[in-house]
Amino acid sequence: xxxxxxxxxxxxxxWTLTSCQQNNGNIPPPENSPRVxxxxxxxxxxxxxxxxxxxxxxHSLRYIIEVWTTDDDRLIYRSxxxxxxxxxxxxxxxxxxxxxxxxxxxxxxxxxxxEGENAVTPNDHMHYADLYYQTDSExxxxxxxxxxxxxxxxxxxxxxxxxxxxxxxxxxxFESGATxxxxxxxxxINEKEAGSVEKVxxxxxxxxxxxxxxxxxxxPGTEFLIIETTCTPxxxxxxxxxxxxIFASQMGDMLTHDLTMSFTVAKDAGKFKxxxxxxxxxxxxxNKRTIANGTILSxxxxxxxxxxxxxxxxxxxxxxxxxxxxxxxxxxGGDLPNINNQGNPFESIF
Length: 350
Fold this sequence. Notes:
Elements (H helix, E strand, L loop, with lengths): L1 H22 L11 E7 L6 E2 L2 E2 L5 E11 L5 E8 L6 E6 L4 E13 L5 E3 L5 E3 L5 E2 L9 E3 L13 E10 L4 E6 L4 E8 L2 H4 L2 E11 L1 E3 L4 E2 L3 E8 L10 E6 L5 E2 L4 E7 L9 E3 L5 E2 L4 E6 L1 H4 L13 E5 L29 E2 L2
Parallel strand pairs: 1-13, 14-24
Antiparallel strand pairs: 1-6, 2-3, 4-5, 4-7, 7-12, 8-9, 10-11, 11-16, 14-19, 15-18, 15-21, 16-17, 20-23, 21-22, 22-26, 24-25
């Protein structure tokens, strides 16, 4: 695994160097060049299709970089770039003063028809309006905050990625590469009886999630946002009812509050009672999938005995996408054991 990671790092540096050389017409920079060249990409974990990286229909993948001073904590540079044809991006800029700097990178999806606006702080750059995540507060990318009015579940456009990078600017060009990872885990709720799912037209969910994520610390904030959302049943390979992207730390957090689901069914398709997953029962870990698989809907039928359990099994997996070769690294950091709490007390509510 270490050898594979090392090779990927060399590959990342290789395409960064190539991009820098191409952008500069293959002319070697002077020894005292203030130039900084940072390549950024998502090299694993993003769902792939035969044509390359998958971008949800009607959306574009936006990359952002910010550079902060480490001595007096000032934001001195920001740039935003849109991915073109599935290619990685290269941020090419100048730092006049030698020293140490901290870079934060972020990538998320925005509407494809979003028009950029000229921004002048902290430097001239093109800014694209945020969609799901606020990136331009006083703390910038150091505190990513959910935009409540835009929140939605069961949609791949909520995916996002981040990275941090230290810059030691000395004489000559600084070149490096960054691989962005997810700041959250996904909660996937799957009903074992597919026939029951076909009767559901809408799912109404109420729960709470961390409102912010702090990339430098690599963990979510302490404030929670109450989510009340309505969505159609999920359609991915891990969930047929519900999935969501929830900020989480590397070594795992718990979904601390109850998640309540109620169901709207098609005409003459019967009824399902509301269903609750108690707080502190579902684990989440950054850049991993949590899969809760059980007989939720069949347990929620009106004539089901009160003491009937859904027998939900909960598993954390580091494999984000089944099509990714098993010999590639799937996450940064240590592994988490699988968790299986078959026969837990999850139950329907009245």
